[in-house]
Design a protein that fits this description.
Layout (H helix, E strand, L loop, with lengths): L6 E3 L11 H13 L11 E2 L4 E7 L4 E10 L10 E6 L4 E10 L5 E13 L5 E3 L9 H4 E2 L6 E6 L3 E10 L7 E16 L5 E16 L7 E11 L8 E11 L5 E10 L5 E12 L4 E11 L3 E12 L14 E9 L2 H60 L1
C-alpha cells in the first residue's frame, strides 16, 4: 500500500470551555522544549486495547490527555494490536497509527516503535526505556523519509494518522517478535538543584509479528526454592512458600495455566490452581511465588509445579500441542512450636517434681530435727533428775 501524507482527524467529543491562558502557554512551552529531553522516563507499559492515557505536569499545572490506536489511511479502526502473521523474511508491511490529542491545548508528541523486554506476572507488556535503542522489531519500523521517530505538534481536539513501514530483515529469525508503537509526551520540571529535565509519559499499542519458518513451543520450570512457616500455636497448620521461574524456551508467545501442590506424610497435601499464566515472550522468564496453607509440619514434603501451555487469545493456533512441563523440589518442615511446647511441658513437670522433692526433703529434715531435739530434751531431763538425788545423799 502506497504511503500517504499524514491526515488530520477530529475526534467526536462534547464542547469544552476555552482553556485558560496559562494552560495554553504551558502547552506552547512544552511544544518548544520536548525535543531537548535530557532525562528518560520509566519503561512503557502497553495496553491490551486502544490505549488512552492522562498525565499531569505539576510544575506548570498542565494536563494532557491523548489516545493512540491502529488505523487505516483515513480513520482509526477497531484493532487493538498491530498484528502480522506468517510474514516472510525480506517483506515490507505498510500500516497506519492514529494519535488523538484530547487536551485543551496544542501538544508536542513523539511517535516511535521499540522492542518489548518481557511481561509482568500481571500480564502487562514491558517495553524498552525511551532512551534505549531497539534491536528487534522496533528497529524495523520507519516513518516518512526513513525516520525512526516523528516529532509532531497536534492541536487541541485534533488528531493525525501517520503511515509507517515495517521492513523485515532477510535474516530475521522465525517465530514471534514483539514490541510497541509509542506516542510520547514530555513534561519539563525543575529538579531540587534548579536544573530543568523532561519526564516522559508514554502509551503504546503492541506490535506483534510472526516471521514464517520452523516454530518451537515449550515451557520450562526452573530455580525452585521452598520454605515453611510454622505458627506459634503448636496444634495449628502451617504454610509452605514455593518460588519458581517459568521460562518460554520456544520462539512463539505462550500462555497457559499453572498448578502448584505440596504433599507430605500421612496424606497431608495442599493445592493451588489452576491459575492463568501471563503471555510469555520467546526466551523470556517470569518469577512466581505461591503460598499454600493447611499443612502440618511433620517432616519431609514435596512441592510440585505443573504447566499447561498454549497460544494466547487471538494468536494463531499451534500445529502441535505444547508439552506439559513439571518441576519439583523437597522441603523439610519441623514442628518447632510443638517441640517447644513439649520441652516446656517436660521442663515444667521436671521443675514441679524437683520442687516437690525439695519440699519433702525439707519436711523430713524439719521432722528429724524436731525428733532429735525432743530426744535430747528428754535425756537431759532424765539425767538431770539423777544428779540432784546424788547431791542430796552426799549432804546428809
Amino acid at each position: 500500500m502506497k504511503a500517504s501524507r499524514p491526515r488530520r482527524i477530529l475526534p467526536r467529543r462534547a464542547p469544552r470551555r476555552r482553556p485558560p491562558g496559562r494552560v495554553l502557554a504551558g502547552g506552547l512551552l512544552l511544544a518548544a522544549t520536548v525535543t531537548c529531553a535530557v532525562a528518560a522516563g520509566p519503561a512503557a507499559f502497553a495496553s491490551s486495547s486502544s490505549a488512552v492515557a492522562r498525565s499531569t505536569a505539576a510544575a506548570s499545572g498542565l494536563v494532557v490527555s491523548w489516545s493512540e490506536s491502529p488505523a487505516s489511511a483515513t480513520a482509526p479502526d477497531s484493532r487493538s494490536v498491530f498484528s502480522y502473521t506468517n510474514i516472510k523474511p525480506g517483506s515490507t508491511i505498510t500500516d497506519h497509527v492514529a494519535v488523538l490529542n484530547r487536551s485543551k491545548q496544542s501538544v508536542a508528541f513523539e511517535i516511535y516503535a521499540t522492542d518489548a523486554t518481557g511481561t509482568t506476572p500481571g500480564n502487562v507488556l514491558e517495553l524498552l526505556p525511551s532512551n534505549a535503542k531497539p534491536r528487534d522489531i522496533g528497529s524495523w519500523v520507519t516513518f516518512a523519509k526513513g525516520a525512526s521517530r516523528l516529532s509532531v505538534v497536534i492541536g487541541a481536539d485534533q488528531g493525525i494518522i501517520e503511515p509507517f513501514m515495517i521492513t523485515v530483515p532477510r535474516l530475521a529469525s522465525p517465530g514471534d517478535h514483539t514490541g510497541g508503537m509509542i506516542a510520547q509526551v514530555g513534561f519539563p520540571r525543575k529538579t531540587s538543584r534548579g536544573s530543568v529535565v523532561v519526564e516522559y509519559q508514554r502509551i503504546a499499542v503492541p506490535l506483534e509479528l510472526r516471521v514464517a519458518g520452523p516454530l518451537q513451543a515449550g515451557l520450562r520450570v526452573e530455580s525452585i526454592s521452598t520454605g515453611f512457616h510454622s505458627p506459634l500455636n503448636p496444634f495449628a497448620d502451617g504454610s509452605a512458600t514455593v518460588s519458581y521461574t517459568v521460562q518460554n524456551i520456544g520462539n512463539v508467545r505462550l500462555t497457559g495455566t499453572q498448578v502448584v501442590s505440596v504433599t507430605g506424610p500421612f496424606g497431608i497435601s495442599s493445592k493451588l490452581g489452576p491459575r492463568n499464566l501471563p503471555t510469555l515472550l520467546p526466551g523470556d522468564s517470569i518469577r512466581f511465588t505461591a503460598q499454600l496453607g493447611g499443612l502440618y509440619p511433620l517432616g519431609s514434603m514435596t512441592a510440585r509445579i505443573g504447566l499447561s501451555g498454549g497460544a494466547p487469545p487471538g494468536a494463531p493456533q499451534l500445529a502441535t500441542p505444547v508439552r506439559y512441563a513439571t518441576g519439583s523440589a523437597s522441603l523439610f518442615a519441623v514442628p518447632w512450636s510443638l517441640f517447644g511446647f513439649i520441652i516446656l511441658v517436660v521442663g515444667a513437670g521436671y521443675g514441679a517434681w524437683r520442687t516437690l522433692g525439695w519440699r519433702r526433703r525439707r519436711l523430713r529434715a524439719k521432722l528429724s530435727a524436731a525428733a532429735d531435739s525432743a530426744r535430747r530434751e528428754t535425756e537431759r531431763r532424765l539425767l538431770g533428775g539423777k544428779d540432784a538425788a546424788g547431791r542430796q545423799q552426799k549432804q546428809a
